[in-house]
Amino acid sequence: MKLWQKDGSQPTNRLIESFTVGKDRELDVLLAPFDLLGSMAHSIMLEKADLLESGELKQILEECTRIFREEIETGRFEIEEGIEDVHSQIEFMLTRRIGDTGKKIHSGRSRNDQVLVDLKMYFRDRVETIVTRVSKLFDTLQQRSEEHKADLLPGYTHLQIAMPSSFGLWFGAYAESLVDDLTVLQGVYRIINKNPLGSGAGYGSGFPLDRRYTTELLGFDDLNYNVVYAQMTRGKVEFALAQALGLFAGTLSRLAMDVCLYNSQNFSFLLLPEEMTTGSSIMPHKKNPDVAEILRGKTNRLKGLATEIAFVQSNLPSGYHREFQIIKEALLPALDEFAECLEIAEFMISRLRVKPDLLEDPKFDLLFSVENVNRKVVEGMPFRDAYRTVGNEIENGSYVPLRNLNHTLLGSIGNPANEEIRTAMNQVISGFCFEKTHAAYEKLLSWVVKTSHQ
Hints:
Strand order of the largest sheet: 1-2
Number of strands: 6
CATH architecture of the largest domain: Up-down Bundle
Low-confidence stretches: none
Distance between the termini: 37 Å
Largest sheet: 2 strands, antiparallel
Radius of gyration: 29 Å
CATH superfamily of the largest domain: Fumarase/aspartase (Central domain)
Number of helices: 17
CATH topology of the largest domain: Fumarase C, Chain A, domain 2
Number of domains: 2
CATH class of the largest domain: Mainly Alpha
C-alpha cells in the first residue's frame, strides 16, 4: 500500500503506475542517505516539540544509524518491489523493525518537503564533487601554463593569424575561466543551501515545528522562510544549477574544440597521447581525437539542460506539480556525467604534448606585424603613421618581422598573472564551507550514542 492510500483503495493500475513513477525508484536510491539524515533531524526536532518521547527518538535514531551504516554505506540499500519511493521505503523499514514508532516520523512532514530537502542535500554533495574536480583541473591547467609560458603559439581572430600568444596563456585562460564559472556555481550553492523542511505540502503545519533547529541539524546556512516559496524553489534550484553547469560546459567544450583543432595536421600545435586517439578501419595514418570530440559533444549537450528544465516547468502556477519529477530524470544523471567530463578534461590536459618553436616557421611572420608597429611608436612615430608604414611594407614585400618579444603587460605572454588567478580561485573555493555540512552529518550520526547514555 502506498503512503497516500486509504483502507479499501483500489490497487494501482500497472500502466498508470509505470507512467507516473517513471525512473523515480531508480533515482531515489541516490537520495537515500539524505532522506535518512533528514528523517533523523526531523525526529530530533519532533522530540524537542514533545511530539515524540525520548525513548521513541532513541529507537528511531539507533535504527536510522544502523540502516545508514549497514545498508546505505555498503551499497546494499534498495527500494523494494511495490514501494513507491525512498521516503516510503525508509518509513516502511523503520515500521517493520521498531513497530508503530516508525509511523510517527512523518508528523509535520509531506513528501513534498521531504523530496525538497533530499534534493538540496544531494545537490550540496554533487556540488562538492564538482568543486573538487574543478580544483584539480584548475591546478593542472596552471601547472601546464607555468611549464609552457615561454612556448609561443599563434593567436587567432576570425581564424586568421593575429598576434603571438603562448601555450602558457592558452592553458592559463581556461584556468581563469574556471574561476568565473565556479563563482557562479557558488551563487547557486547559496540558493541550494537553504532548508525547506517544515514547509510541508507548501502550507506549513499546525504542529509547533522548530524549523531553525532542523536547519542547524542539517548544516544549512539558512532556511526558506515562506512555506509557499519553499515549494516554489522546486524546479528553480534545478534550473539555476543547470545554468551554472552550462557555463562550465561552455568552457570545456571550447577547450575540447581547441584540442581537436590544434591536434589536426593543418595546425599541428600539439599531440594527443596514443590512448586518447582511435584509428580508421581503412586509413592507417589516422589518429582521431575521439576523447576530445566526445567531451565536446557531451558538454555541448549539457548547455541545453537548463532549457529542457525550463520547458518542463513552463507556465506552472505555485504549488507542487508532478512534472517536477521529470526534472530529476534530466538533472541527476547530468551531474554525474559532468563530473566525469571534468575528470576526462584533467586527464587530457595533463598528457598533452606541446610543440615548441612553432613561430619560427615563416608562415607566421605576419603575427609580428604589431611588434613592428609598436617598435616605430617607441622610436617616436605616431601610431597611425606607424600602422600605415608597416602595412605598406607588407604590401611591397619589404616587411621583416621583429621576433624578439618583451611583453610586461599584466596577464600577457611575459606576465601571465598565474599567482593572481590562483588567489582568486582559492577565495572562491573557501567560500563554499563544505566542512559545516560534514560536521552536521557526523553529529547526527553520533546522536544515538549521546542519547543512549542519558
